[in-house]
Amino acid sequence: MGLKPKTIARRLLNKYCYECPDDINLEELIYAEKLNLKFEPLSECQGKIIFSKNEGIITIDSGIKNRSRVRFIAGHEMGHFFLERKICKPVQSSEVKVVEGRDIVEHLDKYVSTGNLWNSRLRELRANQFASELLMPEPWFKEQVANKRLTITMLGETADYFGMSLSATAFRYAELGEIPCAIIFSKDGKVEWSKLHDQFPFRNCPKGKLLSDDNSKACMLHQAFKSKRKSSAITTQFFSHYRNSDAGLYPIEEGLSGTVSAYSWFDDAVNHWGVFLNEENAPMRQYNSTLTVLTLWNG
pTM of this prediction? Predict the structure, then answer.
């Protein structure tokens, strides 16, 4: 299986003496490593790579205008190159698509590898790990969020610092942050994905779970999306507090949080009616989606 994605990403950072996110010019790094980056219309995916052991071509859909998404797709494809070029046949190709609102990519596989260990799921996980470590290195990330209150605003500021999306940054926080939390992305009133901190006590928030009125803020947001009346009281209440950035949508000020029963979100909290969670939401209107941050309520 070779070296861990984190190790390879850190070697690349050290090779070019990068010391902060502003140092990382991803396009220059791609060309320095004998890769080529091009943009062209792609109909069935948002990015793809063709590579041999020593060189490759990364292609990204020219229709993608979000800089943070382009960066993550490029980093993910670089991960496939650095992690797989020594164990695969001479020329390989694969294509990727991005789940709406999420910078975690899934492959439409056209890939032939030489070992049974290199199944699609494992390759995608490792390429994601490489991209996360390259673009949000663990030591830098931990230093950036240390001793800070976990809020959507803080995550948005961290996303801006690293030039990444709010969703990718929140996902990274659940991996590395100090505060036990759950990050949940919902679309059209249903859970699309979740990332749980290792120390978060509840684990069962399945994909497809329907949000109920108990999920007060998130449910109201999805009702606003569904109504498509931008002047409605609900929509105005939420969206007037949010601003656009390259990292996503996040609140200018605090105050859009609420307290809900843990069972509102987690099926395995059915016997814990006395446990409550702090809930804060970031609406993403372009996707009819909401990013939710949940932490334990301490009363």
Answer: 0.83
